[in-house]
Structures are given as structure tokens and as C-alpha cells.
């Protein structure tokens, strides 16, 4: 598996209104107007600023430890899933797809293959829908249990992704029938951080198709809210909710 990125993406070429960061780290996009950096918030002292300064290192440390532990502990499950995929349909076990990462760089997101090779859409623009005939019987189980996303633990270990963050989307993803960056000018702001295996939008029920305007808009809203309020405590809360809501009840298709 190649460890290199596909290369940087020109966000301006994507036709998006991209937020930029000023020297203090605040987002300049109008959606973030009025959000002051921690140093400017009354009551936030040097200890609070130190925690904020250390947070990226702490988050990365948790990502490395969590993804490495997950890969080790789940290796028997990985082998069982791989065998089931190979025995029931032709094609590779792992499906690789180019998606937006941090700062708009493209990387290959990994998933267990859940579709027939002849019908799968490598671009990802044609979104999966309920009772999608392209999905194999094993793939249907993987999607309902969300086990198809587990190979992304490797993406987290490599540094392409985080355990928690906005979900990575394919370039050209549609929202209510139009490119997402045209549908919502705040869309590319969600790429200010590493994408995650799970996120605030997902645990609040906004995942899957983005054909409806309300759902598409709410996903961006939750992603930006996560970026604005992210903390180690919030990450842990989202991870625990994911285990309960996603892997035990199943909400994918």
C-alpha cells in the first residue's frame, strides 16, 4: 500500500470559498465571525492556552495509540472479514478511494470492499442508497455494522485521518444535486482538520445520503461545530457514542 498522498488540491480551483487562518489561528470565513481565539476570551488564562497548545500533540498521541491498539485487537476480525469477502465475490478485499484530507490534500481512504467490482463507483460521486443493488450480501452486513470502515484505522495510524473529525468526502460529492462546495460555501472549512472515522454529525444521526438539503446542511453545521468546540473530552464522548450507536445498533447501509 503506497504511503504517499495523491498531492495537494487547489481549493480555489474547486470553486469553494475557503477559510484561511490568521496568525492567531482563527478562521477568517464569515461563518466563524465573532469566534475569538482562546487568548482573547475573558477568563482563559495561561493554563488554558497551554492546554490548547498541547491539544494537537495529545490528539495525535491518542490517534496513534487508539489505532494501533484497534488494529492489533481486531486482527482476527479483519482476517475473518477478508476471508468472507474473497469467498463470496471476485475482486480485492480492500477498496481504496481518493478523498479530501486536511487542508484539502487528497489521500486514499481504505475500506473493506462491499460492492461488486463491476458495479462499484471508484469516484464515489454516485452515493450509496438504501437497498443499493451494487452491494454484495457480505457488504450489506459490513455496512450495517459499519465494519467496512475499520481499515481506516490504518489511515489514522499513518496520519491521513483522526479517530474523530469530519468524515472524509470524495471530490465532487453532491449535496441536494449540486457540488457540495457550491451548495454550502462553508463546506471546505471542514477540511481545516484531519477527517475522522467518526464525528459529531454521525453520532447525531447525520450520515449516509446527502440528497436532501436539510441533511446536507446539518452535516456541515455539525462538522464546523466540532472544529469550533473540539476537545479531548468531546473526542472521547463521540467515540463512546459511536460504539453504542454505530457498532452495536448499526445504522449504515
Approximate strand percentage? 5-15%
Give the H and E element order: HHEEHHEEEHEHHH
Please report the distance between the alpha carbons of the first and last residues: 27 Å
Shape type: globular
Poorly predicted parts? 1-43
- Supply the number of structural domains: 1
Can you give the mean pLDDT? 82
Q: What level of helicity do the residues show?
A: 25-40%
Class derived from helix and strand content: mainly alpha
Major sheet: size, sense and barrel closure? Answer: 2 strands, antiparallel
- Strand order, sheet with most strands: 1-2
The number of distinct helices, counting runs of at least 4 residues, comes to 8
Radius of gyration: 18 Å
Number of strands: 6
Give a written overview of the molecule.
The protein is mainly alpha-helical and 253 residues long. The protein has one domain (69-248). 40% of the residues lie in helices and 9% in strands. The chain contains 8 helices and 6 strands, in the order H-H-E-E-H-H-E-E-E-H-E-H-H-H. The protein has helices at 46-73, 75-88, 137-145, 152-158, 180-183, 200-203, 213-229, 232-248, and strands at 94-100, 106-112, 162-164, 174-175, 178-179, 196-198. The strands form 3 sheets. Strands 1-2 form a two-stranded antiparallel sheet. It has a two-stranded parallel ribbon with strand order 3-6. A hairpin with a 5-residue loop joins strand 1 (94-100) and strand 2. Helix 1 (46-73) packs across helix 4. The chain is globular and about 60 Å long. Mean pLDDT is 82; it is low at 1-43. GO terms for molecular function: phosphotransferase activity, for other substituted phosphate groups. InterPro entries: Bact_transf. Keywords: Exopolysaccharide synthesis, Transferase. Belongs to the bacterial sugar transferase family. Residues 59-245 form the Bacterial sugar transferase domain.
